[in-house]
Amino acid sequence: MLLRDRVVVISGVGPGLGRGLALRCAAAGADVVLGARTEARLAEVAKEVAGLGRRAVTVRADITDEASCRGLAEAALESFGRVDGLVNNAFAIPPLTDLGSVDLDAVRAGLETNVLGTLRLTRLLTPALTEHAGSVVMINSAVLRHSRRTFGAYKMAKSALLALAQSLATELGPQGVRVNTVAPGYIWADNLKWYFDHLAKKRGVTAQQVYDETAATTDLRRLPEPDEVADAVVFLLSPLARAVTGQCLDVNCGEWHH
């Protein structure tokens, strides 16, 4: 119960990592405020949180919109009167195209969600986080650790998000607010399972073979599951990490070392 009776706001709640974040925070004792653009997903996750004995407030929210962000922040405070943690999980993947040909408007849209939207929501909740010496966790990506072709625009956005987290750690530290980052690699959830099935059919092999080949590139010979990434976030939100700020924790089963 590392987060007993705390309140955690989570953006970008979907069926994969977003769901895992909500459930692991609830299992650790927190009530949660869940934001996403798809209301049906929010309702499903809220039911699961209630099944763990914690409260969940759901808000249809788009972090690229100021009024929508403000509504999410206000709902958290109206429902619980406090915010102890913020997990910025909402993201958008820009076109996976070489930088020499990528559409710049699409790059701007990616930056709006991944960086500016995250900053917008964090700023709105900073007064509440300051009041309770809160913690912010940014969900980043292992794209930080490589320079593969076609990932340039995505790496730009996620690198900017890392810089944002580090700078906010410096700005908000004197107010008692910690800001950290978790960078997952592959996450063994529905989207990746679908993709591996797709690759397997194209190659005429089994999905298990695709998994095994990918897992062989990691030290632990497996791929992280959503709950394992979420547990790292719970740690950073909790008092166990009370002296940790400005850091990036890679959760990738040893695919990349940093």
Automatic annotation (TrEMBL):
One of its GO terms (molecular function) is oxidoreductase activity. It comes from Thermomonospora echinospora. Keywords: Oxidoreductase. NCBIfam families: PRK07890.1. Gene3D superfamilies: NAD(P)-binding Rossmann-like Domain. PANTHER family: EG:BACR7A4.14 PROTEIN-RELATED, ZGC:101858. Coiled coil: none annotated. InterPro entries: NAD(P)-bd_dom_sf (IPR036291), SDR_fam (IPR002347). This is NAD(P)-dependent dehydrogenase, short-chain alcohol dehydrogenase family. It holds the Pfam family adh_short_C2.
